[in-house]
Task: structure prediction
Amino acid sequence: MKNNISEILKILESHYSDEVRTTLNRMRENPDPFKILIGCLVSINIKDDVTDKILEELFERVGNFEDIIDMDLSELEDMLYLARYRKVKAARLKSVSKEIIEKFDGEVPDDKDKLLSINGIGPKTCNVVLCFAFGKNAIPVDSNTIRIANRLGWIDSDKHNEVEELLVDSLEGESLRGANALFMLHGKSTCVPVSPFCSGCPVSLECLRVGVEKSR
Result:
């Protein structure tokens, strides 16, 4: 199984080598724990091009958690004007910043349990920070990752933690840290939720197509 997973990731890497990575994946090139955490919280449920615009403007104004605390809530909401649930997100940025300052002296912790102890940080955000900011053996698991892993026959589960455990046990280093970007690209362009484009899939010969009733 490990060899199969590793080989399929290599095929996907070759196929999508020229594709643009997500905002957060690009942040791995110059990892800044503060920017990656804030970027992850902002990016939830919005497109990458929108995330890019918001973060570009936001990071011109703020460089640490104290800056976010000092900013008026209404001003922060205005800076998130393109984001869905901007009021909720602005409040969350404030509360997460306050808790990190109070509990961790304004430094993003590189420990899973400590990150998850912060109200507003869930498993996916936690793994984004561990993986992209600190280079830890972790992987953010989303619906694309779960769908692809199940269709390939790697696992029969829709539980994030079980898919995460499988991938962490099967991959390591850059292969693991880069897997999230590949799953997102593949899941959005080819292995879509309904009627996937199996005829043009780079791993069609290795895929069991579990649960696929109709394809293109």
Observations:
- The chain has a mean pLDDT of 90.
- The radius of gyration is 18 Å.
